[in-house]
Amino acid sequence: MSMARGRAPRRRSTLPPVLRDWRAGAGLLALVVAVVVAIVALGGGGSDDGPPATAAARLAPADALAYVHVSTDGERGGVQRALAAARRMGIEQTLRDQLSGLLGSGSGAAPVDFERDVRPWLGDEAALALTRGSGGTAGSLLLLSMTDEAGARDFLSRTAGPARRSAYRGTATASYGNGTVSAFVDGFLAIGQSDTVRGAIERADGGDDGPASGDGDAQGGVVGSLADDPTYQRATADQPDGRVLDAYASVEGVRLLLAPQGGPLGLVGALLDQQGLKATALALTAGDRQARVQVRAVLDPRDRREPPTFTPTLTRSVPLNALAYLGFPGLERAAPLLLGLGGLGGSGSGAAGAAGGAAGALGGDTATLVREAGRLLASSGVSFTRDVLPLFGSEVAVVVVDAGRGVPGIALLARVRDPAATAAGLRRLEPAVARLFAPAGGAAPAFGDAKIGGFAARRLRADGGVELDYALRGDTLALSTSAAALAAVVRPSGAISDNPDYGAVIPDSQSKLTSIVFFDLSQLLRLFEPLGLTSDSGLGADLQRIRAVGLTSMSGEAQTTAELTFEIS
After folding, report:
1. E runs forming strands in 396-475
2. Confidence category of residue 35, pLDDT binned at 50, 70, 90
3. What angle do CA 420, 424, 427 make, to 5 degrees?
């Protein structure tokens, strides 16, 4: 029986509230990953290594900003391995708690019992599509495959609250007080807003423009299926059969959903966004002690230039016990990351201080620093492109080391073509660089000779503990804001390539790369103990089980590929 319109708002709907805005992706990703963990933990012991079910993409719109898909088939070997990794990391219960919180009542009622309420009807896949909505709110479409539609209906009737019943194109729909709509479409429970659920119904009908029934007519043309979109097909081609999770984002999705964010999400958006980008896709697979993420970006060759590549050679100057190593084909790619890491060590490492010039912005407002540095260098007749970039050659590395007293230090390494010309060029730049560190209304400091790590170096010290050191060792230029960090790279103890954790996450054969990244997470977390990240519970406990993270990326004319590997203890 239909519910009266006026009664629905009296009881708050408990359908997942994460369906309401741009933050939907994070919440639903936690939900669908939790579904994977819960369904395997509660049953299923097979070892099928076949590819996952992918029917949900037929109901998702081709113009989706982002699409996240998870295999919930407990008989698949890929899902079983993902569960084993989750258990090893100690996050199984955390994910199950997330699931209960998202599916359970928000009004103090008992949480959903997954085995009783969800597992009996949930099928082999779950997906979330985010679409462009009205204003600053994203549209969303959650798709849960079913083996028992009656069980899913019973679940909704007990948990979702009063609904207004109607129909669209002959398919029954239910509307709830928070604006959420649900329908049963082609073997899936579809949950979203009116427009996104109607779109799924239209695609299930084959996209014909037949008459609508019930509560309104279709608005505009039918949006095609994501599964039939050529860009989506290119981005997701040849994904590993053993994947447990895959995701897709159009260029608009990368720039609207990721790039504007701060922190890790913003960094991911910046790394994915590139000239000529059309879309990007990723696939997650898990092994006994490793998890891998494969990322593919589809590019328009007419709207991009071939990026520079490199073969890593600076690894012999990166210490065996380095906390992190990031390699790039030139300073242009490394500079934004280096500036972003500028505040890592605090004022003790010279990354931030009381100097009044542009250096005072180090570790703070990077945009302010860049503008001020550019203005001061230009006023000294220095061109970044003409005078600075050529000094750093065709391979650059950013290295993070323990600079002592629990403070990380950052060093920049570069393989130079002509050491003598580089040394002369740096000497010419010293007065202009020193002006960046001049206190407001005061005289600029000056570089002087120093001995660091047994090698001749040049050092600048300014007010507020700001320091800048550089040294040339053969054809390797090393520069840092910490003498301890510079010493670690000019006279390294061992080489990073001999670190077993490095070898576990970075493939042996490396050539023609666009970037390489390594984090020794076990060491980094020890440095951040004062922040509480290494506690025995919550995020800290989860992170402690990840020993190392590695990423390599390569570029082609019409696509780029990257592989991100996690080593799990």
Report:
1. 396-402, 408-415, 447-452, 455-461, 467-473
2. very low
3. 140
